[in-house]
Amino acid sequence: xxxxxxxxxxxxxxxxxxxxxxxxxxxxxxxxxxxxxxxxxxxxxxxxxxxxxxxxxxxxxxxxxxxxxxxxx
Length: 73
Hints:
Helix content is 25%, strand content 44%. The protein is of the alpha+beta class.
């Protein structure tokens, strides 16, 4: 099973994007996606932005992860 993480793009430079995933910022490759801009949401897997998603997708992902973590406790 692969796990992707939803993140908001903060900045883009030279094919790399700084993203914010729930307050944790990290630099990832943005070379697979065209027309990416700060404020966009992306799905990140293995340090690469693999898909552009909506803000609603990000909210749904966060809710599912919260539910999963609550059940694991």
